[in-house]
Specification:
Elements: H1 3-6, H2 10-28, H3 31-57, H4 59-74, H5 81-88, H6 96-111, H7 114-117, H8 119-137
Helix pairs in contact: 2-3, 3-4, 4-8, 5-8, 6-8
Length: about 150
């Protein structure tokens, strides 16, 4: 499910689940893969249920959460200062107070209700935001060597 597909709502989640079930159906026919496929199917169904719950709570929050997850995936877990700062609406090297203010202004009030629906995703979202704040707050490093 892509960040853009999240905007299509619950029907898109259900379609993605159906597509995944279809892929795993053939794996379940093989003795060697049956247990793995069944375990994967359970996890995918649980995830789809959580995504539907979050979407039912607030579609905008779901979109923001998807954008955070995709950012971390695209940056291989280490966002650039420029991208982290842009997401928080601050300048790179802004300092810890400004970065935290960016989180407060853009995310905290929106993500707080997420605790009631999915504490795991709420915890993960705030950990990501803390990492983004840390990266955005760091002063720009000096260039010591240029090839």
């Amino acid at each position: 499910l892509t960040a853009a597909a999240v905007q299509a709502g619950i029907p898109m989640v259900r379609q993605a689940l159906a597509d995944c079930e279809e892929l795993l159906r053939s794996a379940q026919e093989t003795d060697a893969l049956r247990a793995l496929a069944q375990a994967a199917l359970v996890r995918v169904r649980e995830a789809a249920g959580e995504v539907e719950s979050i979407m039912s709570m607030d579609m905008y929050v779901t979109q923001l959460l998807a954008e955070l997850y995709y950012l971390i995936d695209e940056e291989n877990g280490i966002p650039s200062p420029k991208r982290a700062a842009a997401l928080l609406g601050v300048e790179p090297g802004c300092g810890e107070a400004a970065a935290q203010a960016g989180i407060d202004r853009r995310y905290r009030a929106l993500f707080t209700p997420l605790w009631a629906v999915s504490p795991q995703h709420a915890r993960r979202s705030f950990r990501i935001l803390d990492e983004l704040a840390d990266v955005a707050a760091r002063p720009a490093s000096q260039t010591f060597w240029t090839p």
